[in-house]
Design brief:
Elements (H helix, E strand, L loop, with lengths): L3 E6 L4 H12 L3 E7 L2 H10 L7 E5 L5 H14 L3 E6 L20 H23 L6 E5 L25 H4 L16 H27 L2 E6 L14 H15 L5 H13 L9 E3 L11 E2 L9 H14 L4
Bound molecules: NADP nicotinamide-adenine-dinucleotide phosphate.
The site of NADP nicotinamide-adenine-dinucleotide phosphate has 31 residues, from helix 1.
Length: about 325
């Protein structure tokens, strides 16, 4: 059987690490762990027991567009036909009063979670085109807090996701601008906005390329993995209480292992092969829960906004 290769960004911890583990367990799969800290990624892969012949680690810093371009070129030199790309890496800075920025001057969570992945997805369409494998998939992680159609997405702290008329992107997204809607900086909202962009990007990839390429484009909410390092920049007390709350009150808690298995399933499971879908296993977890197509928010379904976001993002990453 010919080996199938999946790239997973941010595979050095949390959901991405366990997705790499789960996929490497599937027969015939090789995982390219696209990570910014190579030592950490290697130690992480060893710590969860991924056999050394089932993975390759390549450097990528998604906040640095040169690094994303270098990753694409390094990937090509491996000579591995691409079967799947999983855009999983993310940063979350809920407590900042002032925005952190990448080298281009863009707010860091939108730059990393959306723009870096947007550039990566666009660049790797050529690699999918080169590859003759029959079942190609591109998966972008979403989250419940970016989807007001779900209870977890209705929490107005600090504000619900909302890209407005994309004025911040239209105005170049550099200081003093820090939010996509061009309004006042709210760090937790910047994360939600970036994850909304992830779903809009998936929908636009589906609209533009599914019919012509056969690639399956999907997103998912793997459950509330309340104890990953994603929350490392939150209050210490929050990091203690949040997992307890999700385990004992909401019932939304999912282990990193189970979340990783769900992400891996979106890559290989024939039941999750429908392009344009946003998969979920629900907000309340019970053993044996099955996946279903979760309705996405009105904003995430807005085709005109998806197209506009696409065009503006092309400019911001230098692809226009
Ligand atoms: P995590 O443990 O913090 O993992 C994030 C990964 O992204 C790490 O490997 C991190 O690398 C990497 N990363 C961060 N910035 C990067 C950059 N500039 N370039 C390259 N890699 C970078 O978080 P997680 O909870 O597993 O989150 C993974 C995904 O799941 C995210 O897309 C998140 O939105 C989504 N998600 C999480 C939850 C949850 O409850 N945790 C729920 C729904 C969706 P380092 O190891 O070097 O920091």
């Amino acid at each position: 059987m010919e080996e199938k290769t999946a790239i997973i960004t941010g595979a050095s911890s949390g959901v991405g690490l366990y997705a790499a583990k789960a996929l490497a367990k599937q027969e015939g799969w090789h995982v390219v762990m696209a990570c910014r800290n190579l030592e950490k990624a290697k130690a992480a892969a060893q710590s969860v027991g991924i056999p050394s012949d089932r993975y390759t680690i390549l450097p990528i810093d998604l906040a640095d567009f040169q690094s994303v371009r270098a990753f694409v070129s390094n990937y090509r030199s491996l000579g591995r036909p691409l079967t799947a790309l999983v855009c999983n890496a993310a940063v979350y800075y809920p407590l900042l009063d002032e925005p952190l920025r990448n080298a281009d001057g863009y707010e860091i969570s939108v730059a990393t979670n959306h723009l870096g992945h947007f550039l990566l997805c666009n660049s790797m369409l050529a690699d999918f085109a080169q590859s003759n494998v029959p079942d190609k998939r591109l998966v972008i992680l979403g989250t419940v807090t970016a989807n007001p159609k779900e209870l977890g997405g209705k929490i107005p702290i600090p504000a619900p996701p909302d890209l407005g008329d994309l004025q911040g992107f239209k105005d170049g997204f550099k200081a003093p601008i820090s939010m996509i809607n061009g309004k006042k900086f709210k760090s937790g909202k910047a994360y939600k906005d970036s994850k909304l962009c992830n779903v809009l990007t998936m929908r636009e990839l589906h609209r533009r390329y599914h019919a012509s390429t056969g690639i399956t484009f999907t997103s998912l909410y793997p459950g509330c993995v309340a104890d990953t390092p994603l929350f490392r920049n939150h209050y210490g007390l929050f990091q203690t209480i949040f997992p307890w709350f999700q385990k004992n009150i909401t019932g939304g808690y999912v282990t990193q292992e189970l979340a990783g298995e769900r992400v891996a399933a979106t890559v290989y499971d024939p039941e999750l092969k429908e392009s344009g879908m946003y998969w979920s296993w629900g907000n309340r977890q019970k053993p044996g829960r099955r996946s279903f197509a979760q309705e996405i928010s009105d904003e995430a379904s807005d085709e005109q906004k998806a197209e506009e976001l696409w065009d503006l993002s092309l400019k911001l990453v230098g692809l226009a």
